């Protein structure tokens, strides 16, 4: 009984510790949206390369 109560006390002590995020919560999806938009622009920049390569041969 003593071991289980000690484990329970240790678990609840650890669960009470609150860690702050290094950025505001809304910054994570904003950064992800910017990254995906930049990748979209990179993909869009090369949209017609295949057709240009085939017409030269």
What do these coordinates show?
This protein is an all-alpha fold and 57 residues long. It has a domain at 24-57. Helix content is 74%, strand content 0%. It has three helices and no strands. It has helices at 2-16, 27-45, 49-56. It starts with a helix and ends with a helix. The relative contact order is 0.06. The model has no long low-confidence stretch (mean pLDDT 84).
Helix fraction, binned, reads over 70%
Number of helices: 3
| Rounded Rg | 26 Å
Count of extended strands: 0
Poorly predicted tracts of residues: none
Largest sheet: none
Mean pLDDT: 84
Tags for this entry?
single chain, 57 residues, mainly alpha, 3 helices, membrane, transmembrane, transmembrane helix
Lay out the secondary structure.
Blueprint: H1 2-16, H2 27-45, H3 49-56
Short description:
This protein is mainly α and 57 residues long. The chain contains three helices and no strands.
